[in-house]
Design brief:
The protein contains 14 helices and 15 strands. By secondary structure, it is an alpha/beta fold. A nine-stranded mixed beta sheet has the order 14-13-12-11-7-10-9-8-15, with helices on one face. Strands 3-2-1-4-5-6 form a six-stranded parallel beta sheet, sandwiched between helices.
Length: 482
């Protein structure tokens, strides 16, 4: 049964209504992700009044700690304000937070006892809506989900949802295995796969920016766009994640999820307005982009590895794992024929940024006194995702930039948790999206296993070959089609 068909069978209950009774359960509550991201994001929603009045928050883990110990772990990450009012909010929030220990994620008895504890701590135990947040490694997803199924055996499927953190496999085969395991335990409508970039406000702004603005929508094609560069650059290295990163690398860690998702939002056609479900229409449109995208080969790719990577803790001695990658993708449809999409991600670079640079062709009529634009001077639309958060239109070197959208606060995880509670799946990744993205990149990933990455210095722009590659592949015809 197709995703669009099954969506109509699921009741889209809004767990954020004030009269709802909700239990949020963080699986892996004593881990780094839970205390740094999950609990603070839930607190952000609580502090702003976005959660129901009847609420409990449970952490489940294997660590032998007490409730007070859990509070001590998360307190430094939520106690960010100094006012008396916010201090009281923190105290009230912690009163809602409990900890339940089990011997493992296959401990059915512990999960069932946790449900009994939850029911004792809410006013309406027979009408609880559950949100499970999987802050655990992917190899434990199926095990924990099986325990949840046992715990929830008498609860209708539309009264509990599960949030899963990436990575979702490492290639087509591994993802298909994970997908098959989860599909036996949950419906697609219960599964919310997090790509936290889709929770960022600038990214969430893209569909309305594109389709609700006639001026923008009229230039959004190969008639006016020369190329698109989507970049996520970091100044940091592995920071203790050597074991994980050396297994996955920069393509799996950043490009296959974050950058592919951004590309789909930039390139997709307008979602069908007659669809009964807006979220499914958006995800259908993204899938079509992936179907239209040609598989990249080695000639479309540059991979690098920063000097000193092989000395990082838990990195293999002769590792060929890339810490930098540029991939050129082309979309074979009428709108984007001939426009290259460059996806760039790297670690230990000279700057920290995430942005989309939509470079425009030179106008047919220009009041510029120069004969034409130089290679390093072009009109572009910039979508700054981090550290700044704005969308602008202007000339790279002329100093004329018009900001079209700007945000000062950006809480991606809070946005996504709130969406999941509301049953809004538009900012989550659907099963067929992941199958298509892995199908697109898996052949290249396997080819790269025999390629030694180019070396680059820490704090540099990446491999020297990248700039010449971008220059040589630039479409020299900057004039729109007549």
């Amino acid at each position: 049964m197709s995703d669009s068909a099954t969506s109509s069978l699921s009741s889209n209950l809004d767990y954020t209504s004030k009269d709802a009774t909700v239990a949020i359960i963080i699986i892996g509550a004593s881990g780094d992700l839970a205390r740094r991201k999950t609990f603070p994001s839930i607190f952000s929603l609580y502090e702003r009044g976005f959660l129901p009045n009847s609420l409990v928050i449970y952490g489940y883990g294997r660590s032998d700690i007490q409730r007070e110990s859990l509070h001590s772990k998360i307190l430094p990450f939520i106690n960010t304000h100094q006012t008396n009012e916010s201090s009281q909010k923190v105290k009230d929030f912690l009163k809602l937070c409990y900890y339940h220990r089990g011997s493992g994620y296959n401990d059915n008895d512990a999960f069932c006892k946790m449900r009994e504890s939850i029911e004792r701590n809410v006013q309406n135990p027979k009408s609880i809506h559950y949100l499970f947040y999987m802050a655990i490694p992917p190899n434990l997803f199926a095990t924990a989900t099986q325990s949840i199924r046992t715990m929830m055996k008498s609860i209708p499927s539309n009264q509990y949802r599960c949030l899963f953190e990436k990575p979702f496999g490492s290639d087509s085969d591994s993802y298909n295995q994970l997908s098959t395991s989860l599909s036996k335990l949950l419906t697609e409508q219960q599964i919310y796969r997090i790509d936290h970039y889709l929770g960022k406000d600038v990214i969430r702004f893209i569909p309305s920016f594109r389709f609700d603005n006639t001026l923008i929508s009229n230039i959004w094609s190969n008639e006016n766009v020369s190329r698109v560069i989507i970049s996520v650059k970091e100044t940091i290295g592995l920071e203790g994640r050597g074991g994980y990163f050396d297994e996955y690398g920069i393509i799996r860690d950043v490009i296959q999820n974050h950058l592919i998702q951004i590309m789909c939002l930039i390139a997709m056609e307008k979602p069908k307005t007659n669809s009964s479900c807006k979220a499914e229409a958006i995800r259908d449109a993204k899938c079509q982009v992936l179907r239209d995208t040609k598989k990249p080969t080695l000639k479309d790719c540059i991979v690098g590895q920063y000097d000193g990577y092989l000395c990082e803790e838990l990195v293999r001695t002769e590792s060929r794992t890339p810490t930098y990658c540029l991939i050129k993708l082309t979309i074979d449809n009428e709108r984007w024929q001939g426009v290259p999409f460059y996806l760039i991600a790297g670690k230990c670079l000279n700057e920290k940024l995430a942005e989309v640079d939509i470079q425009l062709k030179e106008p047919r009529l220009s009041f510029n006194t120069q004969e034409g634009l130089h290679d390093d001077e072009y009109y572009s639309m910039k979508m700054k995702i981090q550290p700044e958060k704005y969308v602008s239109l202007g000339n790279r070197n002329a100093g004329t930039t018009l900001k079209l959208f700007e945000k000062t606060r950006d809480d991606a995880y809070a946005n996504l948790i709130h969406d999941a509670l509301q049953g809004n799946s538009s900012s989550f990744v659907r099963d067929d999206e992941l199958k298509l993205s892995w199908k697109l990149l898996t052949p290249l990933l396997h080819e790269l296993e025999s390629i030694r990455p180019l070396s680059y210095k820490q704090g540099s722009e990446g491999p020297r070959e990248v700039q010449s590659y971008l220059h040589n592949n630039h479409n020299k015809d900057m004039t729109p089609k007549l």
